[in-house]
Fold these 2 entries.
Entry 1:
Amino acid sequence: MPGSESLVWVAAVTIVIWLGIFAYCMALDRRVRRLEEEQ
Amino acid sequence: MTKTALRTSLPWLLGVWMVLVTLGAFFYAPSAEGFKGESARIVFFHVPQAWVAVLAFCVNLVASVRYLRRRKALDDARAAAAARLGLVFSVLATVTGSLFANVMWNSFWNWDPREVSIAILLLIYAAYFALREAVVDEERRATLSAAYAVLAFVTMPFLIFVVPRIYWSLHPDTIIGATGKLKLEMESRMLQVLLGSLVGFTGLFVWLYTLDVRLARVRLARQKREEG
């Protein structure tokens, strides 16, 4: 684990990971909605 | 607010919430005493992941029991979705725990009772999916895996709550103490971030679980149409 000066970087990487997961879930959400509408 | 509007806005709210939680975990909560460097900040992610894993296994149990009582394919899909997420969050909790262990004790794996019990739990729920893959007939697969899920759940409280409290452990003091009482002796800003993270991770679990179940509902309806 880094020292305090690297916290910004760790936070940035964590946020990027979270945004990646979020974007994936949003894409999945849109796909499920489209499939539901097709029915 | 309509259901559709709620369904659209809640994920965005969760997205913003989790960004705030992450910022809070690194810049709002103070450093914890008695830990190397900033390693204790991992608690804001590790504890919610472990909590969601337990929650998911509870949902798996409920859905499995409902399947055994009602024999509805959707209940089986609900059970599988919950177990899948439980397994994913258990792996995440294990990985974050190992990272912390490496900083604190210079080793990713120390054969600590908590590490061993989560490894056993992972194997138990991995076997649930091995069983599901091994049985071709859908009804038989659903019945067998529901029965297995009930048995698997019996081990969960023992492995998560009992074993690590019986033996001496390297693991920092837990939130729920040996007497079963809540011990929230934490600096207030740390507690705020931890509770915020618990809410966020629970929201993430609900979102992913709902998506999986909705997908299963579409698949089952399609299957029904093709058969009929």
Entry 2:
Amino acid sequence: MTDADGEKVEVVVVGAGLAGLSAAYVLGQAGVDTVVVERGDYPGAKNVTGGRVYMHPLRHYLPDLWNDAPLERYVTRETLTMIADGASTAITLDSDRFREEPHHSYTILRSNFDRWLGDKVAEAGAFVLPKYRADDVLMEDGRVVGIVMGEEDEIRADVVVAADGVLSLVAEKAGLRQAQQAKHFAVSAKEVIELPAKSIEERFNLGPGEGAAQLYFGALTKGMLGGGFLYTNKESISLGLVVGIESLMEREPKIEVHEILEDFKARPEIRNLIADGETVEYSAHVIPEGGINAMPKLYSDGIVVVGEAAGLGLNMLLTVRGMEFAVASGVMAAEAIKKARETSDYSAASLAQYQESLSDTFVLKDLQTFRSVLDVMENPRLFNFYPQAVCDIFTKLMWIDENPKPKISSTVIREVLGKFLNWSTVKDGLRMLRI
Amino acid sequence: MNVETKLGLDVFKIDKEPHIIIDQEICKSCDDKFCLYVCPAKLYTVNRETGDMEIECSGCLECGTCRIACIHGALNWNYARGGFGIQYRFG
């Protein structure tokens, strides 16, 4: 269908990330005339993750699609490390459950993965148009009727799927949200460091194909909200950190993200793991941390918002998530559009089905459950006092010198009472109960 | 490794037109200048001679941190044009 003003399709998806491509895949399979507009040279050219993806939600929403996906390593070892000045304490979970097929989670590099998914979407019958940036939405009588690209090009559509990532200029231009606040976002910087597979498996105690996922918090972010991460890929390591943008703006003296990353890399916990590795890429990405309190409107007349554009990301302290929200929201948006198509009614009332579906699933339920996580994390003691206290106690227990050693129990009791039995830690404990 | 060296590892398709436009009037009256240190690519600098805020758009990772941190609204921020800017090979 073409009209005088330009191209007309049933659905235009802005952004070839996991959310947009998942939506387009479902729509393409259903024979819905769909175009995905992507500003990069290929799907994945602008997309960054930490990263690790949890596979069970993906398999639930798009069964069978992932069997030949270019994933990296299935994670068998989960490590959480508390970093203090000059010391760290780590806890590792190695579980046979992580070795059971189908595997629980995989490390992932998005440029590779999204490009593959883009091909799958094309096979499913949707059209992927790279190298085009959506600059504005077309509005008529208060409803979204398409997008504008550059000075001249436009695509008209029954529905626009805003899958344009965390900043979602499309959602903003469609009037679905206000300006974004620094306190609701973090910035992440990451290096991909190449190492031979054999070195990775030896250094992290992994079998062939197995992977490690490590989160770090404490002194590395220098009192600021955030943490570090390390994921082993097939032949590289993804190493990076995340810092709250407001924390970064308020900190004195000022410090820059790339400096914090260099300091992190120089720590003994990290430097031996990446020794002789070659950095091959440096990337950055903004992460939504505001949860359900910072979400835009998810739909309006002729538009739905999916993935990070919808603020769908969640830091659950021990796990960080986003990609499974992207896939689930993309699929549910597509299903709502298919339903709306039966009556050719693409009004807000009709597309409201999308949000109802999200509300019934882990997507909005988890965001609701963990709605207070940011309040809990906006506590500098979490990043300086606690990791330091744990490392201090552990050091006292492990240290042997020429003096007589007190009983372990008396050391533990004295230290725990001294450090943790006061009003601030009780208050912190009560706050922790909110998540 | 400094940040310039890191950016040298990335693939950029450089556009003649900058995709972020700075309103110098707003920057002149801004005491915060968050952009100078929140950018993970360290692309913002103050020109020593003119005092203008400058950005080197060709090394932009298109993360959007500056857009969020510039609470004074000095940035007319956009992504690089279609087919330009950072092209991640790993992501």
